[in-house]
Amino acid sequence: MARLVLLIAWGLALTGPAFGERGRLLATGGIAHLDGGAGGGIVPMALLAGYASDDQYGGTVSATRTDVDDYRLNTFSAAFNWHNRIELSASRQVFNLGTLGRQVGTGALDLQVNTVGVKVRLAGDVLYTEMPQVSLGAVYRRHHDFDIPELVGAREDSGTDAYLAATKVFLAGWLEQRWLVNAAVRNSSANHAGLVGFGGDRESGRSTLLEGTLGWFASDALLIGTEYRQKPDNLTALDEDNWRDVFIAWFPDKQWSLAAAAVDLGDIGPLEDQRGVYLSLTGSF
Amino acid sequence: MRILAAVFLVLAIAACQSHSTLYQQLGGADGVDSLVTRFMERIGSDPRIAARFADTDPARFHRLLSAQICSISNGGCVYDGDSMAQVHAGMDIRPAEFNALVEDLISAMNDEGLPQAVQNQLLARLAPMQGDIVGH
Ligand code: HEM
User: Fold this and answer.
1) Chain A residues inside the 8 Å CB shell of B103
2) Which strand (E) or helix (H) includes residue B59?
3) pLDDT tens digits for B23-73?
4) How far is A16 from A22, CA to CA, in rounded Å?
5) From the CB of B133, is ligand 1 less than 6 Å away?
6) Which residues of B78-99 are buried (b: 16+ CB within 10 A; e: fewer)?
7) What string of H, E and C letters represents the secondary structure of A116-182?
8) Of chain A's two ends, which shows fewer C-beta atoms within 10 Å, N or C?
9) Nearest residue of A to residue B120 by CA position?
10) pLDDT confidence band for A235 (50 / 70 / 90)
């Protein structure tokens, strides 16, 4: 599967301009969110994936690996952008409960989650309007392996997040530098970003959560920044904390981008202080 | 983290030292002149938009664009051409064409060796014109 997606990404990227004309400026497609749409890695943005402008279409294919002390997450995702207006995305996420799996005697367990998402740009342009670019998005997730989430108290094996995101690049902001500011508000019942089912014993319903990104463009092609994602805490058996990271995203051209981050996921259940790295490769077409 | 702090200290010091106008940072009259020349070369060899300028008088375009850049960069010039909305009316310029032109400008600024902070400021002053130029 992993190899397949990478091959597709490679093929799409090589077919180049025949596929998409990439009429937007470098880096304005952001990097792949874990769910496949445009964002930073853990916080969505109002940007739409790829480089399609108002009368073009395009998209991205991404592979991401997140490795923290006791867990690992592999994500393969794709996004399609129609006219820089609508973004459709899908991802397959494999959550590896290394240490915890061994502790409960199931071995290094993999939980698979599939997602589909849609995002609509409502107003504004990240570069050209005084107001930020504003988009509304939804992501539906479904578990393929619900036994463990159910065991720790998750109520549903599928759920939908809705979010509103506003993103703006200040071309010559503070200190005459180029800054990216992004804020999102999410309504969700997902446990651990949807990796451990939906709803729990502490809180069975939905929560409203705040997320944000601050980035500095070291050059047109290099974005350095930080993300923060507020999380609910629905499960007694598997506590969760807010997530944060510090990332660097490199856009050597409009076909490829590479992002790396130092992530801090806090406590995940009994396993405390989950820190590690995130690496993501995206091909755009 | 300490590296980031150091970077911003350097940026802050650099920003405090530049009391000059953007026009001066662009190299004054000579700098703008040669920037616009390079920019026009870039546009002329850009297959995405070159055809748009097939019937344009290069000397007039050079003069008016230089005056406009001088004016928005506090160089003391008065741009006496028509407004951006008037000039580009009826052309139905696509957002992708506008972005192509911005990429050509960035290439020209790189050719001229202009620092990132100077490039940022010129781009920031041109960006709000997008709405007047595109789609009319
Ligand atoms: C920030 C971006 C832009 C600025 C500051 C700008 C500025 C100007 C100026 C000062 C003139 C000369 C006015 C005159 O001849 O009376 C001009 C003319 C022209 N512009 Fe733009 N322009 C921009 C974007 C574009 C784009 C994206 C296109 C198309 C791809 C375009 C196409 C033209 C053409 C074809 C003319 C010549 C009109 C003629 O010959 O009568 N411009 N522009």
Assistant:
1) 25-26
2) helix B58-72
3) 999 999 999 999 999 999 999 999 999 999 999 999 999 999 999 999 999
4) 9
5) yes
6) ebeeeebeeebeeeebbbbbbb
7) EEEEEEEECCCCCCCCCEEEEEEEEEEECCCHHHHHCCCCECEEEEEEEEEEEEECCCHHHCEEEEE
8) N
9) A172
10) very high
Element counts in chain A: helices (H) and strands (E): 3, 14
Domain that holds residue A99: 2-284
CATH number of the domain to which A141 belongs: 2.40.160.40
Picking from A39-48, A102-111, A183-192, which range would have the lowest pLDDT averaged per residue? A102-111
Give the mean pLDDT of A154-163. 97
Calculate how close chain B gets to A240, using CA atoms only, in Å. 26
Left if phi > 0, otherwise alpha if psi is -120 to 50, otherwise beta: which for B5?
A: alpha
Are A128 and B130 an interchain contact pair (Cβ–Cβ within 8 Å)?
yes
If you measure from the C-alpha of residue B88 to the centroid of ligand 1, how many angstroms do you get, rounded to a whole number? 6
Contact A25/B at CB under 8 A: yes
Q: Which of A53, A175, A219 sits opposite B99 (nearest CB)?
A: A53
Provide the chain A residues 178-197 that lie in CB contact (below 8 A) with chain B.
178
State how beta strands A31-32 and A243-250 pair. unpaired
The CA distance from A95 to the nearest CA of chain B, in Å, is: 30
Q: Quote the pLDDT of residue A100.
A: 76
Report whether pLDDT(A18) > 50.
no
Cα–Cα distance list, B104 to B47, B49, B66, B99 (Å):
11, 10, 16, 9
Tell me if B103 and A128 make a contact (CB, 8 A cut-off).
no
Are A21 and B95 within 8 A, CB to CB? no
Domain spanning B22-133: CATH superfamily: Globins (1.10.490.10)
Compute the residue count for chain B: 136
Query: What ipTM was assigned to the predicted interfaces of this complex?
Result: 0.90
Pair of tokens at residue A201 = 């014993």
Q: What is d(CA A222, CA A251) in angstroms, rounded to the nearest whole number?
A: 6
Mean per-residue pLDDT, A104-109: 70
Q: Measured between alpha carbons, how far is B87 from B61 in angstroms, rounded to an integer?
A: 11
C-beta B93 within 6 A of ligand 1: yes
Cβ atoms within 10 Å of B6's Cβ, excluding its own: 10
